[in-house]
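Protocol step 4 of 5: obtain the predicted structure for the target chain.
Materials: sequence only (see below). No template structures provided, no constraints applied. The aim of this step is simply to have a reference model before the mutagenesis design in step 5. Sequence pasted as it appears in the construct record:
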Amino acid sequence: MEWHVRGGRRVDQSISVGNTPRGTEVIVESMPYLHTVALSVTATVGSRDERKRESGVSHFLEHMLFRGTESMGFREVNERIEASGGYLNAYTTHEFTCYYAFTIDESLKVAEDLLADLFLHPLMDPALVELERNIIKQEIGMRMNDPSSHLRTRMNEALYKGNPLSRSILGTPSSLDHFDSRFLREYHRSHYHPPHVVVCAVGNVDPRRVMEWATRFDDVEGKAAPKGRRTPKQNTGTHFFTKESDRAYLGIGLPAYPAPHPRAMAQSLLTTILCGGTSSRLNHRIREVEGLVYGINMYPLAFRDCGSLLTYCSTSLEQVPRLFDSFGQELARLKGEGLEAGELEKAKLAQKGSLLRNACRPDQNMSSHLHHFLDTGKVQSIEEHLEEINSVTEEEVMRAALDILRRERVCTTICAGQGMKEKMMEAAASLDF
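Step 4 output (structure tokens):
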């Protein structure tokens, strides 16, 4: 076992990074002044690792691991964690599946035992597979009937078509029908192995204890299946999807920087300037001044090998041309005139405020450390994060703007009634910046 520090010097935070003999990565931030611990174990396999016929299996596995283990049923799992003052949860992304507990320090052993048992010895009872299949189909239906979720699903489908990133993390009702207990067991056996396992703990916990716990995930037979991820070619053009409504749901995607890129923070600050709050450029113009939307959102979707800048909103059908016009004018103004006085400093303070308001919560720090490590291979302290924000110059933000905000690279997604297709496509074609 080996401990070392990645991503910078030790500062006020006590952050340790190490690995077990078989390569399970271990991240620990000790906060001895607290009485809580957030603990997670993550399999670095997600929806972009799935073949088409496997679409949704990573998320399905996430559900099944909470359906009991070889030694206890799911009700006992729930009762034990709740009786100990904690809770268990999980989530699946394009690139990993994280299982975590947030509990009080005196009950940490209960969380350790339950997380390890769920991760290593899931029951995969055939009757419960059928039950969970129906639950996830309900989740898919609910997601697709929520206009914002439906739009984001279609945005990925349009932008990344031809790559697994285009597919929903949930899979489809038809793909779920191919999963049985035997298939799920095999997928679990093939992928939940070191070195594709990361353990992260934050709170009142000794790093040596976490390292000892992490070695439980070394004690598995076999070898992890290799991942064959392909960097996507990001599509352009306008993509129309029929969704009967008296509104139009609009998505605008652009290729952007991957997570480890030197200008990734400049990209993040650019996003804040454009759409980071009520007084940001797009929100002020499109919502506050023109009243075209209830809200407009923009965020970078960044992976190790690629990235996108995604904007989404909805408006009434007759307002679509004006919305595209206003959106394009604001981007063109930024590119042509540069930043306003004090605008970058305001964006920096907004990002620092968001960081520091959540900085002392173990569950938030655990999630932050895990995401940053998986995206960049490094762990970043709060001081290092602040230093990175502070170091960005106006020139770097403008370089990012000119790199990313390029009209010829736009991928527009529109969800509206079929009868509006021609008018919507015409409005999208007028977008210019």
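Step 4 remarks: The chain is about 45% helix and 20% strand. Confidence is low (pLDDT under 50) at residues 5-11.
Proceed to step 5.
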